[in-house]
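User: Let's play a game. I give you a shape written as tokens, and you guess the letters that built it. Ready? Here's round one.
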């Protein structure tokens, strides 16, 4: 898209960790970047610390000057907290914009808010884009994966810049326009749901090794390190291996041993579930992972309960490392399959035409859930895919066939030993439910009809029927 004025190629508002890193990434790719921030004193410091990149950065505390310093049609990226601050900024900046300009929200926003904000821009000649950015600070600085929503107009404008700063997988940029309005933020939300599930399952394997296997953090870290070049090869395994082998300077203990076992969360995992349940889906591995973060915060009751509640544990062998590796692989496949089901349901509901192969492709590098499996998923989505279900693709079925026995043994042993593996068990329950043509909901229907005359469908006739129930 031809520039109609001279000035910065893009504006970045919000110089926190992610905003600063993205601004520097744009600058190092040769773009001129206008920068601004609510706390004006951060701006000069940021530009000063940019060293040789400072020439490409134009700081402006005044919002009107900041906007004027950007070439039209403008691209202005906001890296500020989602929610009320975003709405307040839109209100302030919109009167300063002109036809063709695009505002981009690069934070983890609720896609419902993004849809509302996009709709408010419809017909104004200006555009609003929700863009999911994954990869943390390092990713933002050196190559994130980006999931872009919004209009075709905005994508044409943004594309050369975001492709330049994106992570590359075999030379291909890990960014794409995934659909209109909230599509980009929705895909990022589901990415985070899968991220929660993967982190939880890794933590469960750590729990089995630590609590049943009595292994040290460093030993478990070394095991994870050995997995990082196999089928589990992924950023999260690498991070976990490195974290487990890190030593606390103050105490000389493994860092993980001095960290309180209470996990934080900012809401994206929960949003995945809320949307999944609203659409009649159950992403139960993700659900277990979000739930486990909730249980983690109930520290006081857990400490109180430990000496009071009997384990009732049964004898079982601690699972071997090969089974643990297979269990994690199967769980990882199943968590992704659930995430893709949620994406498919949303794509249908919102008419987004999400391309699951492209989504897998842009998750292959840069983002937090990047893993060797994503290339397999991308290929599976491009190949034979019965019913559109990832788990039914021939290659994925083969991988599951080889890894499910390990998952069964790990879940069975953990249950016997009294070690909680909620996300791994949920994955297995999902798998066993999905592979059974005749489930047990016939009895649910019978119960519903018995107590509430809700009616049911028969296997041998159409229409709605009632049972001849024996009175209690
Ligand atoms: C990413 C991450 C990131 C997220 C953190 C923390 O893709 O780079 O998903 O966006 O903010 O992982 O999320 P929680 O605080 O909810 O764990």
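Assistant: Ready! My guess for every position:
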């Amino acid at each position: 898209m031809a520039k109609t004025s001279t000035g910065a190629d893009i504006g970045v508002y919000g110089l926190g960790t992610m905003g600063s890193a993205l601004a520097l990434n744009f600058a190092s790719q040769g773009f001129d970047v206008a920068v601004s921030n609510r706390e004006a004193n951060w701006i000069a410091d940021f530009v000063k610390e940019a060293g040789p990149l400072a020439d490409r950065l134009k700081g402006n505390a005044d919002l009107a000057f900041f906007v004027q310093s950007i070439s039209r049609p403008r691209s202005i990226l906001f890296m500020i907290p989602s929610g009320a601050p975003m709405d307040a900024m839109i209100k302030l900046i919109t009167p300063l914009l002109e036809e063709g300009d695009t505002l981009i929200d690069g934070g983890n926003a609720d896609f419902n808010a993004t849809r509302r904000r996009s709709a408010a821009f419809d017909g104004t000649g200006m555009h609003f884009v929700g863009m999911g950015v994954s990869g943390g600070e390092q990713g933002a600085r050196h190559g994130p994966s980006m999931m872009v929503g919004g209009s075709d107009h905005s994508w044409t404008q943004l594309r050369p810049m975001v492709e330049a700063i994106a992570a590359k997988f075999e030379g291909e940029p890990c960014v794409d326009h995934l659909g209109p309005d909230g599509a980009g933020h929705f895909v990022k939300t589901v990415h985070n749901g899968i991220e929660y599930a993967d982190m939880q399952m890794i933590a469960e394997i750590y729990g089995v090794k630590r609590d049943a296997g009595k292994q040290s953090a460093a030993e478990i870290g070394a095991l994870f390190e050995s997995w990082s070049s196999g089928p589990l090869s992924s950023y999260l395994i690498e991070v976990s291996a490195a974290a487990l082998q890190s030593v606390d300077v103050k105490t000389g203990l493994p860092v993980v041993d001095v960290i309180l076992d209470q996990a934080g969360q900012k809401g994206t995992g929960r949003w995945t579930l809320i949307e999944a349940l609203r659409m009649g889906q159950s992403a139960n591995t993700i659900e277990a992972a979000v739930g486990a973060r909730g249980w983690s915060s109930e520290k006081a009751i857990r400490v109180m309960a430990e000496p009071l509640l009997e384990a009732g544990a049964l004898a079982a062998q601690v699972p071997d490392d090969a089974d643990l590796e297979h269990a994690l692989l199967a769980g990882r496949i199943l968590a992704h399959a659930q995430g893709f089901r949620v994406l498919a349901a949303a794509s249908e509901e919102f008419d987004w035409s999400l391309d699951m192969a492209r989504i897998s492709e842009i998750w292959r590098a840069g983002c937090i859930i990047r893993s060797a499996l994503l290339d397999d998923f991308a290929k599976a989505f491009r190949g034979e895919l019965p019913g559109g279900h990832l788990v039914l693709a021939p290659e994925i079925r083969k991988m599951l066939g080889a890894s499910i026995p390990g998952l069964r043994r790990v879940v069975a042993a953990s249950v016997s030993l009294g070690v909680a593996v909620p996300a791994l068990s949920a994955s297995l329950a999902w798998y066993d439910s999905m592979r059974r043509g005749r489930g047990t909901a016939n009895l649910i229907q019978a119960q519903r009809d018995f107590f509430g005359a809700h009616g049911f469908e028969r296997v041998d006739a159409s229409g709605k029927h009632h049972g001849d129930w024996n009175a209690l």
